[in-house]
Design goal:
By secondary structure, the chain is an alpha+beta fold. It has a domain at 25-148 and 170-258. The protein has 10 helices and 8 strands. The strands form 2 sheets. Strands 1-2-3-4-5-6 form a 6-stranded antiparallel beta sheet, sandwiched between helices. Strands 7-8 form a two-stranded antiparallel ribbon. A hairpin with a 5-residue loop joins strand 3 and strand 4. Helix 4 crosses helix 5.
Length: 387
């Protein structure tokens, strides 16, 4: 018995420890947590990954806005359709700035994020994406993960576990210099791209489509976070800093911020995409028929449903009625308190009528007696007719 208890305890501890070890490095909670800001509808990890894989800036802009890629889910003007993001290019020598913008209205532009690409004198290229503070908070910076440091084996090591000269990489590494878009912008054939689009004038491939729930959108793109690091709401815990401060400061001098976006954010209007659209199961009326008795008041006295034991169809308006059948037919009308139970079409013209059938051969007002000739005789007032 003691051994069984120990075994159950070990199994319980093992099961409780499973969720703690199932978290991978590429799905760290800080990387995948929602910001609670409008930027939750545009994953910048995914945007930077798409940028590196694009051949030209035009290709990047197109793929960013296609419904099929599902990358853009922003609706800053709150018209229930995804906004078009245009890409504006600025260049200063070997420093490039690619600005992602949305025309919120005919007179307002909101910057979404900026991609900074720079090359130093040694030919080393750096690439970062910085989320706009209106949509992502302060210091939201993402960049590719650097390659793992080279491992140099010690030639004098005489142990039994030597370090291999080429250790396999344990994380996804993005080589910025080899990215197609980087090779393109630093090539002689590069031509600056200036988007001709503005509010309500977009390319033919851009079709209006509705936004999806932010939880679904976030689940569809979290796997892009593996080769990058940074982000974090408000810069808390983010060790990534902007490499080219001059390039970023030049951008900030012409940064666009929309009053409409700031008003909607302050009013909490962008949080409605986070709310569930599932209908409430609260105080709605049920359409299921009720099994409880009706409380509708009665409009009169209810008649008894107990079946009558008399075959007569005549209505007795006297004080009593005899249930004993008469042996002789009668065509007369009784004006007293008693009436024959034989079927008759005559109506009694007495003073009162009871709607409840009597179960006795004697009424409360008079007793009926039979004579040897078979006729009935009433002992009450208004004597019956003798036959």
């Amino acid at each position: 018995m003691k051994n069984k208890l120990i075994l159950l305890l070990v199994l319980s501890v093992s099961l409780l420890s499973l969720p703690a070890v199932s978290q991978t490095d590429s799905q760290a909670p800080a990387d995948t947590a929602l910001l609670g800001l409008p930027g939750d509808n545009l994953d910048l990890f995914t945007v930077l990954d798409l940028f590196q894989k694009s051949k030209t800036i035009e290709d990047f802009e197109k793929s960013l806005n296609l419904k099929e890629t599902g990358i853009n889910n922003l609706d800053l003007d709150l018209n229930d359709t995804v906004d078009f993001i245009k890409v504006v290019t600025k260049q200063d020598g070997t420093d490039f700035t690619f600005i992602l913008q949305i025309d919120v209205s005919p007179k307002e532009i909101q910057d979404v994020a900026v991609i900074l690409v720079s090359k130093d004198k040694d030919g080393k290229v750096t690439m970062q994406i910085v989320g706009d503070k209106d949509l992502y908070g302060e210091n939201y910076v993402i960049e590719p993960k650097p390659p793992a440091p080279a491992v140099t084996p010690n030639p004098a090591y005489a142990g039994t576990d030597p370090v291999p000269s080429a250790a396999p990489a344990t994380t996804t590494v993005v080589v910025v210099e080899s990215a197609p878009v980087v090779q393109y912008i630093y090539s002689p054939v590069y031509v600056p791209y200036y988007p001709p689009y503005y509010y309500h004038y977009y390319p033919p491939y851009h079709v209006a489509f509705t936004v999806m729930a932010v939880s679904v959108y976030h689940h569809n793109h979290y796997y892009h976070h593996g080769g990058y690091h940074g982000g974090y709401h408000g810069g808390h815990g983010n060790t990534v800093v902007i490499h080219n401060e001059n390039n970023f400061n030049n951008y900030n001098n012409s940064r666009h911020s929309s009053n409409t976006v700031n008003h909607n954010k302050a009013s909490g209007n962008y949080n409605r995409n986070n709310a569930s659209t599932r209908p409430s199961t609260g105080s709605s009326a049920s359409t299921r028929p009720s099994t409880t008795p009706s409380t509708r008041p009665s409009t009169g006295s209810s008649a008894s449903t107990r079946p009558s034991t008399t075959p007569s169809t005549s209505q007795a308006k006297g004080s009593s009625a005899s249930t004993r059948p008469s042996a002789t037919p009668s065509t007369g009308q009784s004006k007293g308190s008693s009436a024959s139970a034989k079927p008759s079409t005559s109506q009694a013209k007495g003073s009162s009528a009871s709607t409840r059938p009597s179960t006795s051969n004697y009424s409360s007002a008079s007793a009926t007696r039979s004579n040897p000739m078979g006729s009935s005789r009433s002992g009450g007032g208004g004597g019956g007719r003798r036959r």
